[in-house]
Amino acid sequence: MARTPADLVGADPDPPFEITMDGRTVTALPGQSVAAALWAAGILAWRTTRNGGRPRGAFCGIGQCYDCLATINGEPNRRACLVPARPGDAITTQEGHGRAGLGV
Amino acid sequence: MPVSVSEPYDLAVIGAGPAGLAGAVTAAEHGLTVALLDASDQVGGQFYRTPDPELRAARPEALHHDWAAFADLRARQRSGNGITHLAGHRVWTVTRGGGGTWAVHAVTGADGAGERPVCVPARALLVATGSYERQLPFPGWTLPGVVGAGGAQAMLKSGLVLPGIGAPSARAGRRARGRIVVAGSGPLLLAVASSLAAAGAKVPAVVEAAGYLRYARHPRALATNAHKMVEAVVHGSALLRHGVRLRARSAVTAVHGTGRVEAVTVSRLDRDWRPVPGTDRRIACDALAVGHGLTPQIELAVTLGCATRTTADGTSALVLDGFQETSVPGVWAAGETGGVGGARLARVEGELAAIAIAARLGGRPGPAGSGRVARLRRARSRMRSFADAMAAAHAPGSGWPTWLAGDTDVCRCEEVTAGTIREAVDDLGARDARTVKLLTRAGMGWCQGRMCGSAVSCLAAAGGAAPAPPGERRPFAEPVPLGVLASLDPPDEDRP
Ligand code: FES
User: Fold this and answer.
1) ipTM of the assembly?
2) In b/e form, how buried is each residue of B413-450, taking b as 16+ CB within 10 angstroms?
3) Where is the BFD-like [2Fe-2S]-binding domain (chain B) (predicted)?
């Protein structure tokens, strides 16, 4: 029986690369979104809400809910479930509006 | 191939899932030039969402049901002369162009970075935008680790990841992560649970709010849709093999944890979906995948003025004629936009629509005569009747709002609680989702009510009115950067 999703589909990607989440190193596979790479590292939250300051991460997984907004390489309000991870990306927890004004 | 506004495509298909793909390949095979627009880089839609090519999956079909049908459509799309696949095009509105054509407006480029506007002119439109998941809130549903059931499936299919898995943190101690409870209502839950289990997750329980016996009320729809039963048995036996427990007539009524999901409470429900006192059970888990069926995604068509109907489970779907045309001449629709019914029905409808469009553009009378068309129409009505039975069986019970606590967020974006919404209904007299929105900001955030719309309209109806489906009229079907709007050519279209 498959132990991982990658086993199940016989994935054979190029070697993993590194991104950072609030400075912590996370490995990502070529082809994964930022949200997928964070999930793979066991990270479920990467923003806090504007009013309650509560943690949120990916919910709908397909670009509809906007719960997965992250600051990626300094740019706030990116939907992490839609943005492909690239080597060296620096993801930082987005607080509230993302400090840099509304992007959407 | 048309390259400028002056040279329209015969047909623009919006959405490259089963309905859109079937429509595009059939139309091309009938000699039409087709623009196939889709937000994703790959065809297949959410149902046939495939791992990113860079993940080099040797067996993507291991995550899918009915893969052969998709492989066939994809092969025909790739070899089909006349289809221009506009990948990564997020359509945000459609307007009337000059000379009886349509102008499909999209943005390309990464979300929030380097987006560019594109305008695609076409003589006919096929709206195949699919659906999104319906969510009913409950205490704790905003905690990280609670994910949409469809979302868990989507992230698994495209990114090969499971929620709540990963390197165990120090706090988690020895216990391995990876227990995902699947809950909500609808046939998707069984499919989600069986793919999560096949991919290595432990699924302690599938919690279904409806009772499966409700299907027995529709013996004819069951008898004529054997393939649906086969699907259920396939998923059901996969679940048995993985030791997954199915709890029908039950719901997750609370999620526990501080920074992330640690456990859920599962309660038995009465026939109106009210929790039965004394039946609560706590199940330890690392994630919860939850969803209560699907809602047709019809904003684009509604903006064009297409008429809608209320389906058996209270959602809005497009009104379509016998050949898939909407109430607006020149606009056809197929698949979930006409009512949620699954991939097989979507393929049939896409093909039927394309045949009708080819006849119309060719100036021929309706295509009613051919044997192929008759077979497609029979298949469609058979599957539609099953879809109606299914929708009725899984329609949210009137008692689900009793799951809510006063401080439960209903609108995730604007953090509007159930208490605030009830105040608007009880004290301020709001009777519909629109009024609740104006009074409380519920549905005014980033997602524009996609996540909370169904719940808010149910809560508004608690004031006495019949629950009206949430209004699907949105200014844009996709958020568009102001820069993109500003760079549009001056409009020469007369807006509908
Ligand atoms: S998870 Fe919903 S938009 Fe990304």
Assistant:
1) 0.93
2) bbbbbbebbbebbeeeebbbbbbbbebbebbebbbbbb
3) 410-456
